[in-house]
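Re: [ENG-882] Designed sequences occasionally contain unexpected residues at chain ends

Forwarding the minimal case from QA. C-alpha cells:
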C-alpha cells in the first residue's frame, strides 16, 4: 500500500533505495582493497597490523625462528590501550587467508554496514521512512565516514556497537506500552550487552552509552521512576562489567594500562583558543559545517520525548570532548561516533524535505525525475570519494622499506620516519629508535615552536648512542626541525634512494 505523503511511497521503493545504498556503501569501502593501510591515520593502523602479525606468527611453525621472534616482540612491546579483540579476529582469519592486511578492511567495512542497518531501524522509530533512508545515506556516504570505516582500528566496531545499543535502548523505551511483558527485559539485556561490548572495545564509548542510556531513561519518565525499575540496573550492570574488568586487569594485574590514560586531559587547554579552533577543525573534517548545522537544526523537528534522547547524545559528545580535550582537537577519528548522532538528528529535517518533494512530484514522471536527481547526487559523492582513494597508491612503499632494510642490515638504527618506525618494522623487519616528530616535541616539552639548542643536543646525543645510521623518510617533518636538519648535514651520506636518505653516524 502506498503512502502519497512519502517520497518512498511503497515498501518496494524503500527496499530498492536501501539496496542501492548498501551495495554502493559496501562497494566504495572495498574499492582499492589491497592498497596498504596508510591512507588514514597510518600510525594507528600500523599498530594493529604489527600486533596482528605477531599473534599470527605465534601460531606458525613454517617460518624462521628469527622472524617469529621479531614478529612476537613487535606485538608484545607496543602500547596496548584497548583490548586486542579486533586484532585477534584478523589474526584468526590469517589462518585461512595467509597474512593479508587488507582482511581488516573487509571486517571494518562490514561492521560499519551492520551499524547502518541498525541506524535505519532506529531512525524509523524516531522519524519516518523517508527520514530513515536519508539518515542511512548520510551515515554511509559522508566522505570521512567512508575513509574512517575501512581503517584497521577498533573505532568502526565500537561505533557499530554504540548504534546497536542506541537501537536496543530505544526499543526498550517504546516497549513499555507493549502487552508482552518479556519484551522490555529482552531489549534491556540487548542494550546492556551491546553497550558493555562497545565500552570494552574502546573506553570512550562509555560517554555515548551513558548519555544515550540516560536520555532514554529520561524520555521514559523521571529519574525517580527509573531508580525503581530493575531493568535499568540490569542495563547498567551489563554495560559496566566488561570494561571495568578490563581496566582492573590492565591497571592492577598486568600493569600495562597504568601510563596509557595520562596526557589525554590537559586543564590548561581550556584557556587556549587553539583547543576550540582545533575541535572545530575536526568537526569540519568529520561532518562538515553544513551537515553539522542541519543536524543541530533537526533537533527542533523532534517531539519533546525524542528530543531528550537526542540531546542526551549530543551532551555526551560534548562532555567527551571536554574530557579528552587534547585528542578531540587533534585526532579527527575521536569524533567518529558523532556521525550516527548527526545522521539521526538530521533525519526529521530530511524527512520533511522529502515529504515536500513528494507533494511537488505528484506524477510518475516528476517522481522518477526527482529520484534520478537524488541518485545522481549519491553517485557524485561516491565518485568523489573514489577519486580520493585513487589519488595515492601506497603499494610501492613496501618495496622501498624492504630496500632500506637490505642496505642497513647489521647496523643499529635511529631515524625520523613515518609512524615511529612501524613501516620499517612491518615491511623491513627491522627495529629503529625513532626520533620524535615536531608535534611530539611540542606536546612533550611545551616548546611552543622554538626548541633550545641545549635541549636538542641532550636529546640527540641520547638517541644516537650506539647507533650507526640515521634514516630520514619524513622530510616534511625534518624541515620543521632546523637543529636536527643542520646536525645531520654534518654526517657523511651512507645511502640515498627514492624517498629516503641514510646518514652514517659512526663506522
Amino acid at each position: 500500500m502506498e503512502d502519497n505523503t512519502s517520497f518512498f511511497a511503497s515498501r518496494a521503493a524503500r527496499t530498492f533505495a536501501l539496496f542501492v545504498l548498501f551495495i554502493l556503501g559496501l562497494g566504495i569501502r572495498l574499492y582499492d582493497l589491497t592498497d596498504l593501510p596508510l591512507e588514514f591515520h597510518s600510525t594507528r593502523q600500523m599498530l594493529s597490523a604489527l600486533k596482528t602479525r605477531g599473534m599470527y606468527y605465534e601460531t606458525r611453525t613454517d617460518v624462521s625462528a628469527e622472524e617469529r621472534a621479531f614478529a612476537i616482540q613487535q606485538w608484545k612491546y607496543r602500547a596496548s590501550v584497548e583490548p586486542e579483540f579486533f586484532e585477534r579476529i584478523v589474526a584468526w582469519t590469517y589462518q585461512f587467508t595467509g597474512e593479508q592486511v587488507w582482511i581488516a578492511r573487509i571486517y571494518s567495512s562490514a561492521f560499519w554496514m551492520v551499524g547502518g542497518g541498525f541506524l535505519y531501524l532506529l531512525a524509523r522509530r524516531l522519524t519516518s521512512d523517508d527520514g530513515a533512508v536519508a539518515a542511512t545515506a548520510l551515515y554511509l556516504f559522508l566522505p570521512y565516514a567512508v575513509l574512517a570505516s575501512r581503517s584497521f582500528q577498533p573505532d568502526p566496531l565500537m561505533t557499530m556497537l554504540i548504534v546497536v545499543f542506541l537501537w536496543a535502548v530505544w526499543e526498550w523505551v517504546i516497549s513499555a506500552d507493549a502487552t508482552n511483558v518479556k519484551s522490555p527485559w529482552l531489549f534491556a539485556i540487548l542494550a546492556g550487552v551491546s553497550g558493555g561490548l562497545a565500552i570494552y572495545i574502546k573506553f570512550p564509548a562509555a560517554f555515548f552509552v551513558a548519555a544515550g542510556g540516560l536520555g532514554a531513561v529520561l524520555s521514559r519518565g523521571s529519574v525517580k521512576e527509573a531508580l525503581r525499575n530493575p531493568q535499568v540496573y540490569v542495563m547498567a550492570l551489563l554495560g559496566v562489567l566488561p570494561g571495568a574488568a578490563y581496566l582492573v586487569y590492565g591497571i592492577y594485574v598486568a600493569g600495562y594500562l597504568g601510563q596509557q590514560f595520562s596526557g589525554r586531559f590537559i586543564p590548561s587547554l581550556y584557556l587556549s583558543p587553539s583547543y576550540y579552533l582545533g575541535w572545530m577543525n575536526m568537526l569540519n573534517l568529520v561532518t562538515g559545517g553544513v551537515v553539522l548545522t542541519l543536524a543541530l537544526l533537526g533537533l527542533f523537528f523532534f517531539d519533546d520525548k525524542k528530543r531528550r534522547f537526542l540531546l542526551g547524545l549530543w551532551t555526551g559528545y560534548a562532555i567527551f570532548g571536554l574530557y579528552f580535550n587534547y585528542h578531540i582537537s587533534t585526532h579527527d577519528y575521536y569524533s567518529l561516533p558523532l556521525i550516527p548522532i548527526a545522521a539521526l538528528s538530521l533525519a526529521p529535517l530530511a524527512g520533511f524535505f522529502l515529504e515536500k518533494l513528494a507533494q511537488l512530484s505528484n506524477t510518475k514522471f516528476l517522481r522518477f525525475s526527482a529520484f534520478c536527481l537524488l541518485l545522481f547526487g549519491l553517485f557524485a559523492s561516491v565518485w568523489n570519494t573514489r577519486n580520493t582513494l585513487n589519488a595515492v597508491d601506497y603499494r610501492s612503499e613496501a618495496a622501498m622499506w624492504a630496500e632500506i632494510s637490505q642496505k642497513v642490515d647489521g647496523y643499529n638504527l635511529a631515524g625520523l620516519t613515518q609512524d615511529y618506525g612501524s613501516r620499517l618494522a612491518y615491511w623491513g623487519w627491522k627495529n629503529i629508535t625513532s626520533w620524535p616528530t615536531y608535534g611530539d616535541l611540542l606536546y612533550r616539552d611545551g616548546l611552543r615552536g622554538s626548541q633550545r639548542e641545549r635541549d636538542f643536543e641532550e636529546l640527540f646525543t641520547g638517541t644516537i648512542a650506539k647507533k650507526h645510521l640515521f634514516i630520514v623518510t619524513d622530510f616534511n617533518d625534518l624541515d620543521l626541525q632546523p637543529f636536527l636538519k643542520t646536525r645531520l648535514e654534518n654526517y657523511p651520506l651512507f645511502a640515498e634512494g627514492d624517498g629516503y636518505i641514510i646518514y652514517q653516524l659512526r663506522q
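QA comment: On inspection the terminal residues look reasonable. Residues 282 and 331 are 7 Å apart (CA to CA). Proposing we downgrade this to a documentation issue.
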